[in-house]
């Protein structure tokens, strides 16, 4: 039998990564972090001498890039390798995070990554997280979840993540501003903007523990 595809979309900081990874683990499906792919492209641009506005040069850069994703197993996080270089950590910096929304709005970037994602999903058996999975990448996904939370709650979660990494010169207000800006850019772009698919189930995670969210999704899948 064909394994299902589960699409988990939503804004930055709604808890998609942790939840998607755990759901994949629990259901023995492959975890697909599409945000990491867009981050890899932003990293590539940041470490080139191409201007971030130069769409045609970026298209060329991206078309020549080789991407490799090693899904998380055991306690290992997802490994992202671009042109032979392991950038798994480097794609999480604030510099890359700030650049990824504008870079992910370019057609050449989206085309390359969506094709890659659809190729990976051909046989099913995937839990994919992103912004356009249910609307654009896998419109026929068996289960679609739209994960949300208030800006305040999302900023608090991000702050905790940064603090856990020993990063403590970022303020809650700055994180709220960054999240609002990324939400605005992701929902207002022309190509595959962030929005809830008409057949997605919306799950607001304010006040819910990670465990509760995971259980709700597994219940929905079953
Ligand atoms: O989920 P994450 O925060 O890693 O995503 C980083 C950025 O990548 C998003 O803010 C969005 O601009 C872009 N993205 C996208 N489409 C996806 C996944 C991520 O445009 N499917």
TrEMBL record:
Subcellular location: Cytoplasm
UniProt similarity note: In the C-terminal section; belongs to the cytidylate kinase family. Type 1 subfamily.
Name assigned to this protein: Bifunctional pantoate ligase/cytidylate kinase
Domain of life of the native organism: Bacteria
Region (Cytidylate kinase): 1-222
Domain Cytidylate kinase per the UniProt entry, residue ranges: 6-221
Originating species: Crocosphaera watsonii WH 8501
Function: Catalyzes the transfer of a phosphate group from ATP to either CMP or dCMP to form CDP or dCDP and ADP, respectively.
């Amino acid at each position: 039998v064909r394994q299902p595809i589960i699409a988990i979309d939503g804004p930055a900081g709604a808890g998609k990564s942790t939840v998607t990874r755990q759901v994949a683990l629990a259901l023995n499906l492959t975890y697909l972090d599409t945000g990491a792919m867009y981050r890899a492209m932003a990293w590539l641009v940041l470490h080139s001498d191409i201007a971030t506005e130069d769409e045609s040069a970026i298209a060329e850069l991206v078309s020549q890039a080789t991407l490799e994703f090693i899904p998380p197993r055991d306690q290992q996080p997802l490994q992202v390798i671009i042109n032979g270089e392991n950038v798994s950590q480097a794609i999480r910096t604030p510099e890359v995070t700030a650049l990824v929304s504008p870079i992910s709005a370019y057609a050449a970037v989206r085309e390359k990554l969506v094709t890659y994602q659809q190729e990976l999903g051909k046989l099913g058996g995937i839990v994919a997280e992103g912004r356009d999975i249910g609307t654009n990448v896998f419109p026929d996904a068996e289960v679609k979840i739209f994960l949300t939370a208030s800006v305040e709650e999302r900023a608090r979660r991000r702050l905790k993540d940064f603090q856990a990494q020993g990063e403590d010169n970022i303020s809650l207000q700055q994180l709220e501003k960054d999240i609002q800006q990324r939400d605005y850019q992701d929902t207002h772009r022309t190509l595959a903007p962030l929005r809830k698919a008409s057949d997605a189930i919306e799950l607001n995670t304010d006040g819910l523990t990670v465990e509760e969210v995971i259980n709700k999704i597994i219940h929905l899948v079953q």
